[in-house]
From TrEMBL:
The keyword Oxidoreductase does not apply. PROSITE patterns: RECF_1 (PS00617), RECF_2 (PS00618). This is DNA replication and repair protein RecF. It is found in: Cytoplasm. Keywords: ATP-binding, Cytoplasm, DNA damage, DNA repair, DNA replication, DNA-binding, Nucleotide-binding, SOS response. InterPro entries: DNA-binding_RecF, DNA-binding_RecF_CS, P-loop_NTPase, RecF/RecN/SMC_N, RecF_2. GO terms for molecular function: ATP binding; single-stranded DNA binding. The gene is recF. ATP binds at G30, E31, N32, A33, Q34, G35, K36, T37. It comes from the Bacteria. Residues 2-345 form the RecF/RecN/SMC N-terminal domain.
Length: 384
């Protein structure tokens, strides 16, 4: 899978842009604050219908415009597919092969991307909500069923939390409806936990080999899924569902007092361990960086295993955050394997040595020009 072309209209600081992209390594070269990250964000948005930088879609629209459009053409083993997203005050519309999709969940998965930025170190050392978001975003791309269960779970969770708050102010409490909501929430929650465990088992397999190679076989990376469901009951969705149902009963008084749901996958966490120790708490900065890099690179192979296609890799200024050894491993791992977009301010040093035949785009003040192209008139790119 690779992105053959990308068009922008009134997206961030780009009045318009039209890029023809290479299936290998594409380098976005320019000074800071010129629009390199905005291009990566556009690709990420085209894949997932949302930004990794803001929760407000209106932030994506150029301040002089009312709507923004991101479109492109994805080439897969079965052929090419045009994609289009439009953002306006009325919401967003998604099209696949020029046909508007009734639900965004029908759109997600047409283009799979993996983003690796300096802030992704938070996957290891950040709060549990960061790791839950990581699982939900990545697994949702690979598995439409996971995305559906997650959507249903979130809807029910909001409903159950509202009802718990309502019950706080009532003397005569009708707990029957709460029980119904608990049963429904447990069913979807069990599916999410079971799917997370399955995907994490595969991700761990790929990450272990990468981590061992980077650490020169000195370290072993393992995953631990932290949940309130007893470990001996993490066997199948039905058993997990029964365990969650019992946990809701056990926590009912506390949840009524707090007015919120205290049990379920929205409270779970993912722990990374190096040689048996939690790397978040006890790991060095080098071990944390190696763990984050191993997990991100492992996603490439996991997506290929799950979807049959390699994803598109987005590296946002990540090379400057890695030492020479980790840079070398990263660049060798992706060469001739996945379409990659790299933002950088310089092509000097190890980057130039290891990247083979990159397509270089010069980015300045919301304009993009391919290396060797004239500023205008070249069918490969268009400078604004």
């Amino acid at each position: 899978m690779y992105l053959q072309e990308l068009q922008l209209q009134h997206f961030r600081n780009y009045p318009s842009a039209d890029l023809k992209l290479g299936p290998g390594i594409n380098v976005l070269l320019g000074e800071n604050a010129q629009g390199k990250t905005n291009l990566l964000e556009a690709i990420y948005v085209l894949a997932l219908t949302r930004s990794h930088r803001t929760a407000n879609d209106h932030d994506l629209v150029n301040w002089e415009a009312k709507t923004a459009k991101v479109s492109g053409r994805v080439v897969k083993a079965v052929g090419s597919v045009p994609l289009e997203l439009t953002f306006s005050r009325q919401g967003k519309r998604a099209k696949v092969n020029h046909l508007e999709q009734a639900r965004l969940s029908q759109y997600i998965g047409q283009l799979n991307v993996i983003l690796f930025a300096p802030e992704d170190l938070a996957i290891v050392k950040g709060a549990p909500t960061v790791r839950r978001r990581f699982m939900d975003m990545e697994f949702g791309q690979m598995n439409p069923r996971y995305l559906y269960n997650l959507s249903q779970y979130r809807t029910l969770l909001k409903q159950r939390n509202r009802y718990l708050k309502d019950l706080q102010h009532k003397q005569n409490r009708d707990l029957l409806f709460l029980s119904v909501l608990s049963d429904q929430l447990a069913a979807y929650g069990a599916e999410i936990i079971a799917q997370r465990l399955r995907m994490l088992h595969k991700l761990e397999h790929w990450a272990q080999a990468i981590h061992a190679e980077i650490s020169q076989q000195k370290e072993e990376l393992t995953f631990h899924y932290a949940t309130q469901v007893p470990e001996d009951q993490l066997t199948d969705p039905d058993t997990i569902c029964a365990a969650l149902t019992q946990l809701y009963k056990d926590h009912q008084d506390k949840e009524l007092y707090r007015g919120t749901t205290l049990v379920g996958p929205h409270r779970d966490d993912l722990h990374f361990r190096v040689n048996g120790k939690n790397v978040q708490t006890f790991g060095s900065q080098g071990q944390q960086r190696t763990t984050a890099l191993s997990v991100k690179l492992a996603e490439i192979d996991l997506m290929k295993e799950e979807t049959g296609e390699y994803p598109v890799l987005l590296l946002d200024d990540v090379l400057s955050e890695l030492d020479d050894a980790r840079q070398t491993h990263l660049l060798k791992a992706i060469q001739d394997k996945v379409q990659t977009f790299i933002t950088t301010t310089s092509l000097s040093g190890i980057t130039r040595q290891l990247i083979k035949d990159p397509i270089i785009f010069h980015v300045a003040n919301g304009t993009v020009v391919a290396d060797g192209s004239a500023p205008s008139g070249d069918p490969a790119t268009k400078e604004d």
